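In response to the reviewer comment on reproducibility (Comment 2.3), we provide here a single inverse folding case reported in full, input and output, so that an independent group could reproduce the run without further information from us. The structure tokens appear first.
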């Protein structure tokens, strides 16, 4: 506060501190935090602490600016430590579906697919089971079913076509191979 006489009223002191040191305190806090809003919070908290310790500041001991900057630095350090200790907060996002979907929808979908698979010929159904449910390659499915790889490809093509038709609610006549 320099050569100015120390105000006796705490509120007057804070107004004078802000008028004299507010801009430099905000600039310092912004450099430390990298965020203007967080820096404003730090300045506010610093001035609140100055208000609580008004008697210490008006006693003429030490630099007022130094005290304010030290308090601001300590506040930034405390906030950084607090953030490091607790897990990061995640905002709720309303436009995304929940992480775990409705189990009933999965059950209904499985039943619809199973019913559609029942409409296929056993040869087509066996090929789809080998390729999609058991995750086998065309060569592995051919070996397992004892048929040539070209037949596996052909049957899978026609089986998927028939499955799509059934799933779409259409009665489709599809040749078998």
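Designed residues, in position order:
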């Amino acid at each position: 506060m320099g050569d100015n006489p120390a105000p006796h009223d705490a509120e007057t002191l804070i107004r004078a501190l802000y008028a004299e040191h507010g801009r430099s305190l905000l600039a310092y806090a912004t450099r430390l935090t990298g965020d203007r809003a967080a820096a404003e919070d730090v300045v506010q908290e610093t001035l609140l602490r100055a208000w609580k310790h008004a008697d210490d500041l008006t006693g003429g001991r030490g630099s007022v600016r130094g005290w304010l900057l030290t308090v601001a630095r300590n506040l930034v350090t405390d906030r950084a430590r607090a953030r490091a200790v607790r897990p990061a907060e995640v905002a709720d996002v309303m436009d995304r579906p929940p992480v775990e979907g409705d189990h009933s929808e999965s059950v209904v979908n499985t039943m619809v697919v199973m019913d559609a698979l029942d409409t296929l010929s056993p040869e087509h159904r066996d090929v789809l089971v080998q390729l999609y449910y058991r995750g086998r390659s065309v060569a592995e499915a051919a070996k397992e079913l004892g048929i040539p790889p070209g037949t596996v490809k052909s049957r899978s093509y026609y089986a998927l076509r028939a499955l799509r038709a059934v799933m779409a609610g259409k009665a489709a006549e599809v040749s078998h191979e």
